Amino acid sequence: IPEFFRRLIALKRGQLGDDLASALIVARDNGELVSDTELIDMLFMVLSAGFVTTTGVIGNGVLALLTHPQQLHLVRSGQVPWSQAIEEILRWGSAVANLPFRYATQDVEIDGCM
User: Fold this and answer.
1) Which residues touch 21 (CB under 8 Å, ≥6 apart)?
2) pLDDT at 53
3) pLDDT tens for residues 82-95?
4) Span 35-78, pLDDT tens digits
5) What is the pLDDT of residue 101?
6) How much is the pTM?
7) Does residue 103 belong to any structural domain of this protein?
């Protein structure tokens, strides 16, 4: 993967575009990032973060449909469009929907409710 990113950086430096890799290359060339190694690490982080959340939401969606066969039937029969089902899966089963985990360290009252 590092070699892929080295090639991508060389290609993008010759033809910058309107994309994240190009923006990071410009930041590196302007001295905002320390080295090409740091640039490669950032690109790898973006790739892996996108992969993990995408595979997580796909898995959560499959699990949701398999554990709710009535909903799966609605989608498979065309009564509910796949686009609507996907939007609901993204809303309900996002891999990062509950992050970050934060807890109050003392009781908090909001609008009269504890």
Assistant:
1) 8, 9, 12, 43
2) 82
3) 999 999 988 887 76
4) 888 889 989 988 888 887 888 888 989 999 999 999 999 999 99
5) 64
6) 0.54
7) no
C-alpha distance from residue 32 to each of 26, 27, 29 (Å): 9, 5, 7
Is residue 54 within 8 Å of 93, Cβ to Cβ?
no
- How many domains does the chain fold into? 1
For residue 98, the tally of other CB atoms under 10 A from its CB is: 7
Residue 113 covered by a domain:
no
In 53-82, which positions are buried (b, 16+ CB within 10 angstroms) versus exposed (e)?
eeeebeebbeebbeeeeebbebbeeeeeee
Residue 51 lies in domain: 2-92
Q: What is the largest CA-CA distance in the chain?
A: 60
Give the tokens for residue 103.
């807890």
- Residue 107 falls inside a structural domain: no
Q: Is residue 27 part of a domain?
A: yes
